[in-house]
Write a structure and sequence with these properties.
Blueprint: E1 14-22, E2 26-33, E3 39-40, H1 53-64, H2 69-77, H3 86-104, E4 114-125, E5 134-144, E6 150-156, H4 161-174, E7 180-183, H5 188-197, E8 199-200, E9 205-206, E10 209-212, H6 223-236, H7 246-263, H8 274-278, H9 289-299
Parallel strand pairs: 4-7, 7-10
Antiparallel strand pairs: 1-2, 2-3, 4-5, 5-6, 8-9
Length: 301
């Protein structure tokens, strides 16, 4: 029995009728709808994309591993007959990073009880024209110390209480195991942490312990989140000011989060990715994890 549904009238009365050969996707099964008499090919995550899924996911992987979009373009010249412009590669990164993030942000995590939260300052050009000036933005994130999983992150325009509260709220929703939250000396964290996790009237204690470590006072620093930030800085150092909109910068930083959590293997985790510890039910069948994540994100819609 064919489970395919017609995209035009949502009818299930469809039959197979021929094939269509495409340069990017090869031979595809074509269907005919008995209700509206239209022919169609089932829409997958790469519907109407003029490049193959392997080429697109290769671009995402190369970008997150350190190549610029122009570097990826030069790399493709040697291996693909029809090259892709660097602007198209940037569009792929934005589009599929957000699509994967919609799926991964909804996953429940098996984390430890200790999380570190911090923020990084970024200077983003308001436009590719230098004379329009620089806008100071922030990347806020939280990392689970046990699995090294970046629980949640966001590139935001300012470090307001609303943005900080949203990040901490997402962290709480993705895991219920947190008992200790460590932040820097930013005073806004104190009330946000307490309000987010709440107060237990029976024990007369807050449901989470808030530890504050201020580096300027010689109290040390949050080693795991700072190490994560060093890795992100290595990748973003070559970015030319992240010029463009905040939304574009948000999508690019999401691609780095996905790469860190699901693709990159960590030496401190015995060659595993953080997702293998935080989400043991998520099993990858192939080495192309980008492609599998894109397909999983399509199924969750």
């Amino acid at each position: 029995m064919i489970k395919t549904m017609c995209p035009h009238c949502n009818s299930k009365g469809v039959v197979r009728r021929g094939f269509k050969r495409t340069e990017a996707h090869g031979i595809r099964q074509r269907y005919f709808c008995k209700s509206c008499s239209k022919r169609f090919i089932p829409r997958d995550p790469f519907f109407r994309m003029r490049n193959s899924p392997e080429k697109i996911t290769c671009a995402l992987d190369l970008f997150c591993r350190g190549l610029s979009t122009r570097g990826v373009q030069e790399h493709f010249k040697a291996f693909f007959p029809h090259n892709s412009d660097h602007s198209n590669i940037l569009r792929w990164i934005r589009k599929f990073s957000l699509r994967i993030a919609n799926f991964t942000d909804s996953l429940k995590l098996q984390t430890g009880s200790y999380v570190e939260v911090d923020e990084m300052e970024f200077h983003r050009r308001k436009s590719h024209k230098r004379k329009l000036g620089i806008d100071k933005n922030w990347f806020i994130d939280g990392i689970d110390v046990k699995t090294r999983f970046m629980i949640n992150s966001a590139y935001v325009k300012n470090r307001s209480q609303a943005n900080l509260k949203k990040i901490l709220s997402n962290i709480k929703n993705k895991t219920n195991r947190i008992k200790i939250v460590t932040t820097d000396g930013l005073t806004a964290y104190e009330n946000i942490v307490k309000q987010n996790w709440g107060y237990d009237r029976h024990t007369r204690k807050y449901n989470v312990q808030h530890k504050v470590i201020t580096q300027s006072k010689g109290e040390g620093f949050n080693i795991w989140v700072e190490r994560l930030h060093n890795s992100i800085r290595q990748r973003t150092t070559g970015f030319r000011g992240l010029h463009g909109s905040v939304e574009s910068a948000y999508a690019i930083m999401k691609s780095i989060e996905i790469f860190y959590n699901f693709i990159n293997k960590h030496g401190s985790l015995n060659g595993k990715s953080p997702s293998e510890l935080a989400i043991p039910s998520l099993k990858f069948q192939t080495s192309n994890r980008w492609l599998e994540l894109i397909k999983l994100s399509q199924q969750s819609i």
